[in-house]
Amino acid sequence: MRQPFLGSRVDTTMMIPESELGVILDADGTILGYTAVNDIRSRDLPCEDPLYVAYSKTFTRCLSFGPCIVPPEALPASGHWNVRCTVEQDGAVTWDERNTTRRRYRSWEELLGALRDHNTLLAGTLYATGTVLTPLQTVHLRERDRMTINIEGIGRLRNHVVDV
Fold first, then answer.
1. What pLDDT is stored for residue 130 in this prediction?
2. CB 8 within 8 A of CB 162
3. Percent of the chain scored above 70 by pLDDT?
């Protein structure tokens, strides 16, 4: 199976993975399903100027999701699932971290309530809920790396990295 590509900006030296649980919503904010999200960003650009936070996350190939959308009733009702992310460089694993969505700072009610209250939602809206993993300062995604996220009950999303 062909794997989607994620982009690593060539004007930065600290492109990091943000492995996230994605929530698919209907126009009224009803949760239709869950998916894995590979969301990458520059860690060094916001250090130059805090206004660069959006700039560091919005570019070609900055996000991928999949491998499927799982309906809410197919996952544990607790709302807490295990998340694992690995980065491979030159065939060797250079970062491997595990955690749980329980580590989120905000509850599901807070996250989704703020989204519903302050946005116009469309059917099929993808909401990336934030990462529960913190890459080491030495992690930098570059062309030919491979990033894999596994979320319990959802599956594995694997992406190759290309320069953009």
1. 86
2. yes
3. 98
Summarize pLDDT for 10-56 with one digit per residue, the tens: 988 999 999 999 999 999 999 999 999 998 888 888 887 777 777 77
Q: How far apart are CA 146 and CA 141, in angstroms?
A: 9
Q: Can you say whether the dihedral through the CA atoms of 70, 73, 79, 83 is positive or negative?
A: negative
CA distance 108 to 134: 20
Strand locations in the chain, DSSP E? 5-8, 15-25, 31-42, 63-70, 82-89, 92-100, 125-131, 146-151, 155-163
**Closest to 148 in 3D by CA, of 139, 162, 138, 158:** 158
What residue type is assigned to position 152 of the chain?
Answer: E
What pTM was estimated for this model as a whole? 0.90
Please, which residues bridge with residue 127 across strands?
Answer: 23
Residue 42 · residue 14 · CB < 8 Å: yes
Measured between alpha carbons, how far is 92 from 132 in angstroms, rounded to an integer?
Answer: 23
